[in-house]
Amino acid sequence: MQTSGLKNATIYRRQSSKRTGYEEGHKEHTEITVNTNEESNSLKPCEDPEKSLLRQGHSMKNSVSVLKRIGSTVTTTVASFASLTPETKPTRRRLKSSTELALNGLKFITKADGFAGWPRVEKDFDRLTEKTGGSLDRSDFGDCIGIKSKEFAEALFDALAKRQNITGHVISKDQLQIFWDKINAPDFDSRLRIFFDMADKDLDGGLSEDEVKEIIALSASANKLKNISGKAGEYATLIMEELDPYDRGYIMIEALEVLLLQGNTKAVSDLVSQQVEVSQSRNLGKRLYNGVKYFVLDNWKRLWVMALWIAVMAGLFTWKFMVYRNRPAYQVMGACVCIAKGAGETLKLNMAIILLPVCRNTITLLRTKTKLGVVVPFDDNLNFHKVIAIAISIGVGLHSTSHLACDFPRLIAADEETYKPMEQYFGAQPKSYVQFLKSVEVITGTVMVILMTISFTLATSWLRRKDYKNLPQPLKTIIGFNAFWYTHHLFVIVYTLLVVHGYYVYLIKTWYRKTTWMYVMVPVVLYLSERLVRSLRSRIESVEIKKIAVYKEGNVLCLQISRPNNFRYKSGQYMYLKCSDVSSLEWHPFSITSAPGDDYLSVHIRDQGDWTKKLQSTFYKFFPKLVIDGPYGAPSQDYKNFDVVLLVGLGIGATPMISIIKDIINNLKVNTGDEEEGRCSNTVTPPSNSPARKSELFRTKKAYFYWSTKEQGTYEWFKSVMDEVSEADVNNVIELHNYCTSIFEEGDARSALITMLQSLNHAKNGTDVVSGTRVMSHFGRPKWRSIYERIAVKHPNTRVGVFYCGPATVVKELHNLATEFSQRTTKFCFHKENF
């Protein structure tokens, strides 16, 4: 059969098995032709990796398998492989195209193992066999070659040993080098044979169902997939049904090869994307200009706020410095008093404005009800709070050092005539340094410094999150979020002492010149008013617990609670939760995972600290009373400002993105007239079908959601949402991409069988073996460059909103890529939430 106009096309035919309802002898063929253009480095539209070549609807009564191999021109019949016996050796041909090289998977040693080559292996061999006389035991094989999964390494050892006719459990260095060469053989067939032999325990040339079950369990264990391990027998049956249609009781290597290769199609788009780089000018001056230009474009909101703040501080410092430069005190204390007073003036400013970024209600009101968000970076409120704290630390250092190390010694050492103008401020000339230390100014200042030092130190991220390893045990008990929470409330004492300190300030007598209280009055009143409003609102807005769910994987508690009538929020926002049975004082923030159109509120709480542990244990005993405070603004609530959005969540950081996805689907249902009610707590519910709401929300035309998680069981958190999106999103508005980082990437021998199972099960049952949802999971970590490239190519001349929530580990990479790709036609606007 000829196929014109296609290069490197693959055509496979397979007879329907005798398990079909057809009479024996009836032949049915299904053809798939794949075009691979390997001469172009541009990104070409390719089939969605979630769409398996084994199409749905192929029931056991009509089991027609569609298998493909990319980059080959061989036409083969899978059914013919099933008719072979282990004694029959078919002729296999494969053309070495670049596409096949891209699919040269089944690697036993990868970057995930810290691949370092034979010299490192040889060094490890010498270390491990130092006491055994140069003999490497089977149990140490994995450690020596860099494979972390011990069971998989031992199975690999057994397969290699059998082929080399090696008996026993030890090998020499020469034998290890032979093993190493075979493991890293450049040709795919050799590695396929090793993989097949790992399952073929008796080396009879065929795999029985028990052997398939054992290799599935081994692969699942290597990838930490408990759910697949528990269903190894079921999945072995599925593979035998596909590859052994004539019930011979075994499958051949050729049939396994076809199925393994068809699961590697996802690697092609990644390879092509990686070949496309953002062009860079060779002119150094132009590169610097472009770098500065795009930095300013990306950070102009932050820059003007910082510039204004620094300018005000510089102005205050300079003004106060010059005032005291022309006063009699300068003749006694010199420039030290000018520096102390200048620093003191900046401290008044910063002690006032440090409260503004944590006035949550005010910020939420401004970003939601006004257009100030266009010019004010509300997303950076906590970062600004931290920067101001650093400025306060510097100001305290300058102010206290100038007084203690310079002003006081000069006052003591001054002669009588020089000191005389200072008598109106200090009285009789002090003869001892201790006299200054007993003053109200020094005592209040010292206590403030001590309290702020405690508060600032325990607020650092590594102490607040308990990111420590070698701290003494006594210190471990006094750090963490609770320590941060309680010590931050020392601000009540600090501000009281600040006003007292300002009243007894040196060198000022008239009350209206003592301006400390003037600086802090408005911010303190605003902040205390906010706290009062929160307290009153929480008393009124106690909520009823409707449903709870506890997910063992990830230790996550899902709460569904009643929604107060006046609680209006936007997707991406968060609220505070208090449980008096756990703590009567502590409030903790959680992203809202329900959508604005839902008649309930839901949050997902991960067990990551003392408070969350106590909360979960309380729910095992009884349903405690909960009160809420919110909602509060967050960066991801601005997703509606973009036609295209890229939503990224790591672990529990997916929570605000889930609310956004629900909101988009709700509006899709409204626009398509689908008013069907949601089925369970995580499904979406259509919102109010008001014209105002339609015009407000539905600017977004395309959403890409990438969720990366370490554990297979975490998919249970939002399983129903994923299935709902797959069912309701008929126009492909939302693309869902789940990544399980515990699974080795495509191309690794340890995940090869999982990839094959994934394709088979999705085709037959419509579900993913990893996530249990209709969404096909990816293995390993997301390749962010490829993702940005794909979106940039699909959406030229478009502003793409990038919203991230999760740990700070990938923030720099995502932000840098957004800046880099924005230098072309697509503009990526990056927003983040860290926890």
From TrEMBL:
Keyword hit for Cytoplasm: no
Keyword terms, alphabetized: Calcium, FAD, Flavoprotein, Membrane, Metal-binding, NADP, Oxidoreductase, Peroxidase, Transmembrane, Transmembrane helix
Ranges where the EF-hand domain occurs: 187-222
Listed transmembrane segments: 303-322, 442-463, 483-504
Domain FAD-binding FR-type: 533-638
Family affiliation: Belongs to the RBOH (TC 5.B.1.3) family.
Membrane topology category: Multi-pass membrane protein
GO CC entries: membrane
Annotated region described as Disordered, given as residue ranges: 1-58
Entry keyword Transmembrane helix: yes
Name of this chain's protein: FAD-binding FR-type domain-containing protein
Location(s), subcellular: Membrane
Family matches, as Pfam families: FAD_binding_8, Ferric_reduct, NAD_binding_6, NADPH_Ox
Bias kind Basic and acidic residues: ranges: 20-31
GO molecular function terms attached to this record: calcium ion binding; peroxidase activity; superoxide-generating NAD(P)H oxidase activity
Polar residues: bias regions: 32-43
Record-level GO BP terms: anatomical structure morphogenesis; defense response to bacterium
